[in-house]
Amino acid sequence: MNPVVKPLSMTAKAVPAQTQPQPQDGRFLMREPTREEAEAAVRTLILWAGDDPSREGLLDTPKRVTKAFKEFYRGYDEDAHDILDRVFEEVDGYSEMVLVRDIPFYSHCEHHLVPFVGKAHIAYYPAKGVVGLSKLARVVDAYARRMQTQETMTAQIANVIDEVLAPRGVAVLVEAEHMCMSMRGVQKHGSSTMTVQYRGLFEGEPAEQAKFFSMVKSQPLRAAF
User: Fold this and answer.
1) Residues marked as catalytic
2) pTM (2 decimals)?
């Protein structure tokens, strides 16, 4: 009897999570599918949803979706450690809290690949110097543009700032609305989720935490021009 030969799958076979090597950003080391394979997967999902991927309106949708995915998830190609690599030490001894608030972001929940959208607020007490304010916004973007949970994203932001800048304290507050609650499931539009992480001086210090929340929620200054 001739042996049965099974065809190779279109994508690489996943290695069990416990043995699969993982780089710093947490991605599995698997062969990246080709654009053609990705577009074929989108066509399959269109069929699964009940529509015809060959009709005029959907004919180029697989190409658009794969292109959009590269933009949605470009955070996988960014290293937040590199973003924070430059520190300005000439700050004339400034040692009080630095707060950047209302940093807008959008991400995708890893459970349903549905967006969650909100704002991040980051505060830290400098030790050796300060980092450019725009760098903190870029760190949020680097982690937001991945598949994950809000809790994970909040911890990732706090961890990388703590590791690279080695400040005396870090506080991160993330507020977001999850479309997986608004569009599906319980369908509760307008509900929001808040997550917070503390490091250093903020840990176990109610006074510092209260100061952080007070500054985050204070009324913004109006521009004089």
Assistant:
1) 109-112, 150, 178, 180
2) 0.80
